[in-house]
Automatic annotation (TrEMBL):
This is Protein yippee-like. It comes from Spizellomyces punctatus (strain DAOM BR117). Pfam families: Yippee-Mis18 (PF03226). One of its GO terms (molecular function) is metal ion binding. The keyword Transmembrane helix does not apply.
Amino acid sequence: MGLIYRRFLDGHSRVYCCSECKTHLSHSEALMSKAFQGHHGRAWLFHDVVNIIQGQPQDRPMTTGQHTVCDIFCINCQAVLGWKYVCTGFFAPGPFAIHPWSLT
Ligand SMILES: [Zn+2]
């Protein structure tokens, strides 16, 4: 009880962590773009993110059109990190958009 299993990322040139609690979230090899503009501002796109909780899927109007997305939260401190694309005609399903200010 109370123990949260967290993965640690190793062997990457740069590991991105939660700015609140330093939980490992993703790494430089999974970073797709730093130039993405989301509905709440700038976001970085990753194709692989660990140690997150996903919220309920919602249809949301985005800058690239209507997409089905889930909010994503840090598994440790529950900080809102960004969102994940579930269903989209613009990207292949799966990319995670994370606000740069949520990362350290
Ligand atoms: Zn955290």
